[in-house]
Amino acid sequence: MANNSVSNNENSNLIERFYNYDWSSTSFVPIDSWEPHIKSIVNLCFKSGFPTFISIGQDMLTIYNEAAIPAMKSKHPQAPESTQKVLNERRLKTLNKLSCQTADAESLESACQITMKALQNNQDIPYALIYLIENNKDPKTGFNSPIARLVATTFDEVCKDELIHKKLKRHIPDYFPETHEMIELSKISDQNYIDVKCATSTYSFLRCDCWPINLVMKEEKLIHVLLKDNSQAILLPIKLTFCNERNLSAVLICGINPLRKLDDKYMEFYKSVLNYVSRILIRGMSIEEEKRRAKILADLNHQKDMFFQSISHELKTPLTLIFSPLDELMNINSQDMQMKSYLQIIQRNTRRLFKLINTLLQFSNIESGQLEAHFYETDVTKLTRELAMNFENITSKLGLKYIINIPNSDEFYQTENVKVYLDHDMYETIVFNLCSNAIKHTWNGSICIRLYLDNKNEQKMMVLEVSDTGVGIPKTILPNIFQRFYRVESQSSRSHEGAGIGLAIIKEFVKCHGGDITVTSEVNKGTAFKCWFPIGCKHLQINQIYYNNKENYRMSNDQKYSKRQLYLEENLQWIQNYSSSIQDNMSNKNLTSDYNMDINKFDDIISPFSTDSKESSLTIISKKYQILVVDDNTDMRNYLSDLLREFNIICACDGQDAIQTLHKLDKLPDLILSGFEKGANNYLKKPFSSQELILRIYDTIKLSNLRHKILYQQYKQESIKQFLLTISEMINSGDNLIEALSNITKKISKILPCDRIFIISNGLSTSNTSNSTLVALYENLENKTLIAESFQNEEITNLYSQSIQSQTFLNNSGIEILLNTYCTNTCKNVSMLSMEIKMNNSYWGWIKLQRSPNSIWLNSEIELLQQISNQISLAIFYKTLMEKNLKKEIQVKAETIANKTKTQILANTSHELRTPLGAIIGLISLFDQSTLTNDQKDIINIIQYTSDSVLSIVNKILNAAKLEMHQITSIKTTFDLLDLFEKTIEQFIKDLENKQIELILNCDIENLPRYNRGDSERIKVTEAGEIIVYVSIKSQKDIDNNKSNTYNHIVKKDYLLIELHDTSNGHQDSIGLGLSICKNLVKINGGEFKVESQLGKGNKFWLTWNIDLLPINTRFNSQISYILPYFIMLKQILVIHPIESARNAILKYLKMVKNVDAFDSLNKGIQEIKNYLNLYNQSIYDIVFIRLYEKNKDEVMKGLLELREMDKYSNNLLIIFIVSSGDKEIILAKTLISKIKGRTATIHSPVTWQKMTKLLSNLYDNFGKNKNINI
């Protein structure tokens, strides 16, 4: 199989090399143009299994098959490499060709056509088609439906007969599916596509009747199609987004080379082609979008220009109808000054409107290219001087130095034969606009008009320069000032009126003359404009030049409304503003509000339309509301002043003037009427109705007053809140309560004006004052009571009666009001308001306020005093409580420090005692190997016992110290429960022997788990070790401990119940620390410790100890419970023990044994054995446990001999002696063992599970052997 695979690969490589070879480099044409018989011969060659060679063409090229490879030897291996190289180069050329065509796309249609043209005659893509997906609006339903439109193919060619109309002829092959020019995707039902697998490709193909455009767009993935002649094609989806607005969807259909296998590299090539096609489409779509937007902007611009022209012409008609009747009215009413002033305002503003309309019309003509120019040879020096001198009088009144630096005509023209051609209308606009701007932005200094000749760009030019020393223009905005509608923000100028197109028009006018305009400026130093006009007329159009030296052309035959008059009237308003500012600078007196001034006199001072606005602003009459009017238009200021005669009007010409005026007023105005763009409380659009303006003013002032009242109330409440907080701070911050209360009375007098304020204490909460003691007093030395303005409009609570009798107000509320009562301290009648100060439901004292007799007390005053009283009560209570808590805290800290010191001393002492004790105990162990007399041994034992006792005491002291210092923590480990008890009991063996105490460990073996998790070290310490120890386990709730458990199981939380019983008359350790240590350790573990005791009956101690029961599948021994050896479970056992609790403990260990009997004496056991022998003639027991004491040795000896006699034939009875670890009982056991013979064993008391299992295990190993075992 491997050889066949290699063979197939070789044959495939040969075929690929053949079809991808560049036949154009030989005498052959491309393979597609070969004759059919040659193709057949080549096909037979490749399919033949015999070595076959073909030599064709003039170059005698050799074509061979796979069987001929061995004969080719070294000439063959270069074929596969050459094939891939040729493919890569050819495909790279295709991509490069597409990339070069990107810039040629001018629309979406042209982009598609360019793409198809670039893919024509391509061997890797034999043909290509591109469909664009568009939305087509259905005229019947009105809804958009998607359609696919065939835009371009590689089969397209321009018809030669109809080249002018560029009609395309498409030759769609017959083996294609149905190829429609337009496909309505919404009407195409899902076709029954057939999946086909091709042997030459790893991809699946679809057979279909028409191109599956809808399927490609629906699934958004490429689709392979098998055509009618079994050739292949691929459909590639294109989805593009342009500027996040316009989406483009398209489908690119590409043919697949029938002689090439569709492998991964071929697919990568198609994807690269798709990327380049997408770029071309994006380019075409962006160019198309730019053209569309440019057309829209051009249309909008044209519509705007037409609108300006039409609206300007339309406005001129009503203006014309206003001018003529207005002139007649002024002539008729020339004697009526008030009416004349109204008419003058109308006239000035009508002319201003006329000027603005002319400006907009000029701008519209410039934008639309309809500006007509008439250029005349002009004496420019004379014309410029005439125009500039119009502003001489205005600048003089404004206090500016006006310089006209224009040479005479003879001086200007004497050097050269200079001819200047100007459009007088345009030039007049240029001069007036530049001069007016200079005056507008210059507050002091000078303005200079110059005319001179200069060279620019190697050309002789006339220069008109207008410079000033005004506010200047920032460098950052200089490039923008010639843009239309551009205005410099926040620039200080005499007026802010204007449309922002003046400089833009000037620039266009200068350009009409073939010149240029430049500007230089520096902030706060000035600005200079230079207009450059070429000399001569070569640069002008011939049809715009007029050779009339008489200069008859003028703007209009009617000089009445010439530009001069329009510009000068505007500048005259600035003179009024300047005059008023001069008067203001000369006046150093502050503005005063004379509320007694006669209104009629005020009307005489301020004429309805006085130009002296500052004089009117300095006069204030006695009217309810005051308004500041700020406007840079003098007519508007005068009109508003006359319209709002019912108010006190103060005028200001601009913001700076308004600020200066506000600084000089004693009281801020109720309203500012100005042209704010933002931040105002109310807005009124121009033109406005006078009645609406007055109503708006009243409403705004009322709303403002309401806001002020609300803010005042909020401020008042916040002030009271801060004052109440201050009371608490004053009482709590100081040590002297009386001093704090005295300061509080002073502060109360500032918000509650009174003649006298004092506080009386009943002495219930402080030791510094006696009962009914005056602790604080404030007296108003001026003896004058002022009622706050805030209380004037409030409801009066207490109205004194006609008889002026004393009365009590709201007895239950702790408030007392006496309108006319005698004060013994001041020896006069007063009106007194009293408020109780309560603490802990008791009366601490009173706070009292006094005023002149029969004075009333307002609601707000009573409520405020009640709040003050409550705050004083809370503050005193808190201060008293804090003092008590502080004393307790100091006492607790002192006790804690003393306790820590005591604990540290105990710990240090314990450490010091352990050093000599360690030496003593270590030296005593050396005597174990020495030969000593009995007396010496007794002395050594006494020393050792005493040392151990002292060491135990020292350890207890050290443990107690560690507990006090919190140096003992609970550490959980895994341990064997009964093994732990075994080791703990060993520590008390000697004490038990010395005191001859029987220790019994009673454990519930059946329920106790073997391995547990807890703090085993603390259990050792808590073992008290007396008489009987009961150990059992109690269940708690199951807790999911996945987060902390190592084994990720549910850990069962249980606790041990340990009970200790003794029969002593009382219990107390030597130093009284044992039980304390036990209780603290149990508490650390989270358990409980309790003690019960009855005189003469003994003590009972019990505790609980928390443990975690380990799950079954842990890493410890699989035996998790306590189990006896199996062979023991089949035995019969007899237990002889005089103590019932000991018998019960052993029976629990042997609970799993088949038969166990227990008696308190050996005689009872022997009687049971005899009864069994009589019935069954055989022994009943295999093992006998006997407790051996010194006092029962004779009884035991006699009974054992009798047992041996009854067992003499079987000799299987095992006797186990239970003895203490002391020498006496061990020797006694050995003596009995030597006498009774047979199988014996020894186990030490107390009997524990570990000892029992060890003994029984050894018995199993030595069972049948006559051997004594000692455990």
From TrEMBL:
Name of the top EC class for this enzyme: transferase
Reaction catalyzed: ATP + protein L-histidine = ADP + protein N-phospho-L-histidine
MF (Gene Ontology): phosphorelay sensor kinase activity
InterPro entries, per the entry: CheY-like_superfamily (IPR011006), GAF (IPR003018), GAF-like_dom_sf (IPR029016), HATPase_C_sf (IPR036890), HATPase_dom (IPR003594), His_kinase_dom (IPR005467), HisK_dim/P_dom (IPR003661), HisK_dim/P_sf (IPR036097)
Entry EC no(s): 2.7.13.3
Keywords: Kinase, Phosphoprotein, Transferase
Histidine kinase domain segment(s): 310-537, 908-1109
UniProt protein name: histidine kinase
